Amino acid sequence: MTSRRPHAGKPVSSRPGVTYRLTAKAADDIRRITADGIRMFGAAQASRYHARLRQSFEALARYPELARERHELTPPVRVHPCGSHIIVYLADQSGVLIVRVRHGHEDWGNEP
């Protein structure tokens, strides 16, 4: 796969001026999603899905309030769907922090 590997905590972007950060758990989630995707669907499809996730991260960086804040979760986070996954993120003055990338079927409500 030719796409960049996720780096926890460092600003990431493929476009100037559009940045987001990943937590270590989010970076691990992306590595797992990619490895599972390669195993289950092949490298080409996994690469396309990885690109789709990255495009969603960039859209959230451009429009951080795209998803509503979920106050019923602790801490309150924003949740945005992407394919079969849910992007859990925080947005504030410093930008967007991708907290986790969870599968939509996971019980992630108690632990974003």
UniProtKB/TrEMBL annotation:
Keywords: Toxin-antitoxin system. Coiled coil: none annotated. It comes from the Bacteria. The keyword Phosphoprotein does not apply. InterPro entries: ParE1/4, RelE/ParE_toxin, RelE/ParE_toxin_dom_sf, TA_system_RelE-like_toxin. Belongs to the RelE toxin family. This is Toxin.
